[in-house]
Design a protein that fits this description.
Length: 182
């Protein structure tokens, strides 16, 4: 028999009927479903991974960079559903112009000021909402990564929008440009 772990203190478990949910994504350690009430449940294989993610999201809850958390219990987290598309898809399907580049720069600047940009962020976890605002739907881990910004810039290069991004960055804030391109 498995030993029970006290991973959750103040939330009550919710009955989740997966047959009434729509699978919308996942990874090697979790699956994400859209629930009938237009919330998202992320179910983890390992409850410790779930708790780590919850603690990380809870620590950054003062910001509006992440979807709101409604519940956490053992293997799952219930969060706000973000209607939008990944930034990669947005760049590929829409024209990435000066306005979009500047919005992305300001989003990264806010992440940087709040010490979130130094965490393990995947570019595809940045979403563009219906109102064209950016939101971060996930963080891979709470480990500090010195190369997160480098990976983001590399992805922008792969998407052929790095020159525009750097041009706007240099015009917006030369000090930030120097810091991010060193």
């Amino acid at each position: 028999m498995r030993k029970k772990r006290n991973l959750q203190k103040d939330n009550k478990s919710v009955i989740i009927k997966l047959d009434e949910c729509k699978y919308i994504g996942g990874s090697y350690n979790s699956s994400v479903y859209l629930m009938k009430d237009n919330r998202v449940v992320k179910i983890y294989k390992d409850p410790l991974d779930c708790k780590r993610q919850y603690e990380l999201l809870k620590a950054t809850a003062v910001s509006n960079f992440f979807p709101k958390i409604y519940n956490f219990c053992g293997h799952y987290i219930i969060r706000e559903y973000v209607e939008g598309i990944s930034i990669t898809k947005y760049i590929n399907e829409n024209k990435f112009d000066h306005k979009a580049a500047l919005k992305l720069i300001k989003f990264f600047e806010k992440l940087d000021v709040n010490k979130i940009l130094s965490l393990d962020i995947k570019f595809e976890d940045i979403f563009v909402k219906k109102d064209n605002e950016f939101i971060l739907i996930d963080i891979s881990s709470n480990q500090l990564k010195e190369d997160t910004l480098y990976k983001i810039l590399k992805t922008l290069k792969t998407l052929n929008v790095l020159d525009l991004f750097l041009f706007e960055l240099k015009n917006y804030n030369i000090n930030l440009y120097s810091k991010w391109t060193k």
